[in-house]
From TrEMBL:
It comes from the Bacteria. It holds the Pfam family TsaE. Belongs to the TsaE family. Its main location: cytoplasm. It is found in: Cytoplasm. SUPFAM superfamilies: P-loop containing nucleoside triphosphate hydrolases. InterPro entries: P-loop_NTPase, T6A_TsaE. This is tRNA threonylcarbamoyladenosine biosynthesis protein TsaE. The gene is tsaE. Keywords: ATP-binding, Cytoplasm, Magnesium, Metal-binding, Nucleotide-binding, tRNA processing.
């Protein structure tokens, strides 16, 4: 896989990366079908990244965090369907089928997932893994890993 390390000094850097990803998706419609997984401890900045990406994609209104619902659906300004998962409280394997998660991952649209580790065994391989680590000076070290051609195009489309 393609692996790249980035440094995000502040939240503006999170915003800039989200904006570049938005531009890459706008230029290559298939990237809108990507599955992007966010790895990192509590407080790393996973939800913050998702919010910046949703805003860049023109999602309107209050952006709810899916912690209790596991998934929040959104629609981009372009009409692109986006599902934001947070598997932190995922613990019932039956929910994968019953709540239609399999169908969401099989359908077109952008899939964003926090805590994918908690759904291991169900969740497909991510096109792009974003691993965020908060450093002692509050900056972020970010590892991007592409596991597919789509993931590689996302990284290429969002250069540092
Ligand atoms: P997570 O979803 O990984 O638990 P959050 O996105 O809720 O983490 O972020 C936790 C805190 O980190 C928030 O207060 C947010 O403002 C801060 N934060 C997020 N990204 C950055 C960044 N790139 N630089 C500095 N602080 C950040
Ligand atoms: Mg979060």
């Amino acid at each position: 896989p393609i692996v790249e390390t980035r440094h995000w000094p502040d939240e503006q850097a999170t915003h800039d990366f989200a904006t570049r990803l938005r531009d890459a998706i706008a230029a290559d419609a298939d990237l809108g079908n990507a599955f992007i997984a966010l790895h990192g401890d509590l407080g790393a900045g996973k939800t913050t990244f998702v919010r910046h990406l949703l805003q860049a994609l023109g999602v309107r209104g209050r952006i709810k965090s899916p912690t209790y619902a596991v998934v929040e659906p959104h629609t981009a300004q372009s009409g692109l369907a986006i599902h934001h998962f947070d598997f932190y409280r995922f613990n019932d394997p039956r929910e994968w089928e019953d709540a239609g998660f399999r169908d969401i991952f099989a359908a077109p649209g952008l899939k964003l997932a926090e805590w994918p580790e908690k759904a291991a065994g169900h969740i497909p391989i991510e096109d792009l893994a974003i691993k965020i680590e908060a450093m002692s000076d509050d900056t972020r070290t970010v590892i991007l890993q592409a596991n597919s051609a789509r993931g590689a195009r996302l990284i290429k489309g969002a250069p540092a």
